From TrEMBL:
Lineage: Eukaryota, Metazoa, Chordata, Craniata, Vertebrata
Family statement drawn from the similarity comment of this UniProt entry: Belongs to the troponin I family.
Domain of life: Eukaryota
Species this chain originates from: Megalops atlanticus
Gene Ontology, cellular component aspect: troponin complex
UniProt protein name: Troponin I
Chain coiled-coil ranges: 59-107
Keyword Coiled coil in record: yes
Amino acid sequence: MPNSPRKSKITASRRLFLKTKLLKKAGAMLAAEKEEKRVERENTLNERVPPLNLSGLSIQELQALCRELHHKIDVVDEERYDIAAKVAKNDQEIENLTMKITELKGKMKRPTLRRVKISADAMLGALLGSKHKESIDFKANLKTVKKEEEKKEEVTDWRKNVEAMSGMEGRKKLFDAAQ
């Protein structure tokens, strides 16, 4: 029985139990990964951006601090814009290279073609553009060919001239007629 379906070695309830265990484990791992990323982000921010000490500063010092922070924000924003432009450029280059690879492999997807009913005038208008105004008679330029009528052999009564065609004289006449 090579084509008969094989029976599963584990029962359906055991399979369901294993699936739920796997989903619980994956959920726990996902939550742990999110928490790890949050802690790593906090540590990185604390490292790069020292906490602000605003107590005891005068108005001029606060304004200078605000200008400095605005300048830093502008610098970071410019870097982010430059990086985004580089990423977009690299993505476009990757797309172009993959297109070239698929062209070289010859595995281009062919679009499904649909039959379009279009008149000869509309087709000429599409091909020639607006300079095509009047319809062209295609049959007018065709060469005319005269049909030659086939030479019909005259059906004669075979009984006529039997005596004239008999013997060597008749064969000689047929031979002469053929040449």
